[in-house]
User: Which sequence fits this backbone?
């Protein structure tokens, strides 16, 4: 169960996949969202996250996932020494995490616009489980990959994450 919770934290968003459809409801708009998140476990990527601080400022971190391992770098602390294994987020355990964290509420996904992220045209989706939780996701129109996300934070300033997929190598 601890690995599943870590997988959620690593991805920065709830990992809902089509394999979980019987466990909870997703509207039809969630197909692109589900596919993009599921694909993160099968391709190397780098994500840069900026989390706003409670008293201003920001905390940044970089995660690189390659070869089934996750490498984390936090500028204030340096590299986190041990690479962690990443496990695909499928099956009944994932449904249990979803039910615990979101009370089994159905996911609603709506395409709300289009933008370009790192030179790639993207559809913007708002994904929510209820009116108190909403994440904005930018999913590449051609690649289907997650390019960017913005999630709510306690400060009211979104947690921002940008994903890249080219030339990803283990840093140490």
Assistant:
């Amino acid at each position: 169960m601890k690995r599943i919770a870590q997988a959620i934290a690593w991805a920065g968003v709830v990992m809902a996949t089509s394999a979980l459809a019987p466990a909870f409801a997703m509207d039809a708009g969630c197909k692109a969202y589900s596919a993009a998140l599921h694909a993160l476990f099968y391709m190397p990527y780098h994500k840069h996250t900026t989390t706003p601080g409670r008293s201003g400022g920001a905390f940044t971190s970089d995660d690189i996932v390659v070869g089934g391992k996750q490498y984390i770098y936090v500028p204030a602390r340096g590299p986190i020494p041990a690479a962690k294994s990443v496990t695909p987020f499928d099956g009944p355990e994932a449904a249990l995490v979803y039910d615990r964290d979101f009370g089994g509420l159905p996911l609603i996904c709506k395409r709300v616009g289009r933008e370009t992220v790192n030179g790639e045209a993207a559809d913007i989706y708002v994904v929510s489980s209820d009116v108190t939780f909403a994440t904005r996701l930018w999913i590449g129109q051609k690649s289907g990959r997650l390019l960017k996300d913005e999630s709510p934070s306690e400060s009211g300033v979104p947690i921002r994450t940008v994903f890249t997929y080219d030339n990803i190598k283990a840093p140490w």
Notes: Confidence is low (pLDDT under 50) at residues 1-24, 89-102. Residues 92-102 form the longest helix (11 residues).
